[in-house]
Amino acid sequence: MNRLDRQSFLGPDSDTLLHECTVGLVGLGGGGSHVVQQLAHLGVGGYVLVDPDRIDFSNTNRLVGGTLADVEAQALKVSIAERVIRGVQPEARIISVADTWLEATDDLKRCDVIVGAVDSYKERDQLEGFARRHLIPYVDMGMDVTDLGNNGFLISGQVISSLPGGPCLRCCGLVTDARLEMEAQAYGVAGGRPQVVWSNGVLASTAAGLVVQLITPWFPSSPEFVYLEYDGNKGIVRPHGQMGLLKGRKCPHHPAEETGDPLFDIRKHLARLESRSKVAEVERVPLWRRLISFFRNDCS
Amino acid sequence: MDANKEFESIKTLCGAAELHQECGKPVVLLPGFRFKSGGKDLSMDLLLHPSAHTGYVTRLFFREKVAGKGRNWTQHQVLGSNWWAPSWQGVKAEQAWPAILCAHLRGVA
């Protein structure tokens, strides 16, 4: 019996497709850690995990896989995610980048899908722009808690599947210059925003479902732009009003002529590859050999 | 504002300048641009974004941080590569591109 038998309805080749694909996950906190766990169970074979942060005690209310021992050890969030994946798929292909996604662009370029679970509009905007430029489908997820004064708090969120050529986060009105300006003015004062595990879970499950739609032949028609909104107080996920209006529209913000890397220089690219392979070569030599070599060279 | 006309005026400052587009807006690459910072001559690739970007009305991106100058440097992805920009607000878009460039360079002078 195959581990994935009970999801065979996703299509005859779905196991292979899931195994062969690589998903980039940017942000491995409350939202991203849920997505990683689900993709691992689904059998996604390749991962580019990106998050510069280490777990802290306040993350344990929502970071899937994170333990008190991880807090004690100040474990990297990418390491926790890697452990969660390997617990189900020991042979998974994982590239972990404990840095900002801007330092992981070479690896993210090779992904089949990128999932963004980032906090700021600036990050969303630029990550989506990067994905568009490299013709990679981008799934964005985010949640917020709004103080309604005497009426309590509203938990809300959204999941958007942004495909090359189709409507983008700007088309949806999620990213606007006004929001970016407000964010820039609050530079350095952004504190911890309210987050809860179950709404992160709903949004992450929705995002994982969209990733599966993109990869497998589960749906007979081609994947399309999706914009779902979440009302956490009512426990409802439904198509956002904009979804129907925007469907089929071309995106004016990321025109077709803006694809690819306009500053690509083959000489710089080859030099970078060469320096990477030299580093890899050094890392392959055991430490004790490197030490002997160092002392021999130093003493001769 | 006529982007082509503005670009021609930028080319008088940097003959190797290239006009590109990001999110449908013009962006000017200034390869190996020479400028003064803290009394020293510097040369590096710059990217002039003469319209709104990440909440700023205009922006100038630097290939690398200028040591000891500018504040709150942040990294950005523009034209498929990474760039640095200091927090330097208030350089209006309603002026000639060379004037925008000079106003931003004052932030690292």
UniProtKB/TrEMBL annotation, chain A:
GO terms for molecular function: tRNA threonylcarbamoyladenosine dehydratase; ubiquitin-like modifier activating enzyme activity. Residues 9-236 form the THIF-type NAD/FAD binding fold domain. SUPFAM superfamilies: Activating enzymes of the ubiquitin-like proteins. One of its GO terms (biological process) is cyclic threonylcarbamoyladenosine biosynthetic process. It comes from the Bacteria. This is ThiF family protein. It comes from Pseudodesulfovibrio indicus. The lineage of its organism: Bacteria, Pseudomonadati, Thermodesulfobacteriota, Desulfovibrionia, Desulfovibrionales.
Automatic annotation (TrEMBL), chain B:
It comes from Pseudodesulfovibrio indicus. It comes from the Bacteria. This is Uncharacterized protein.
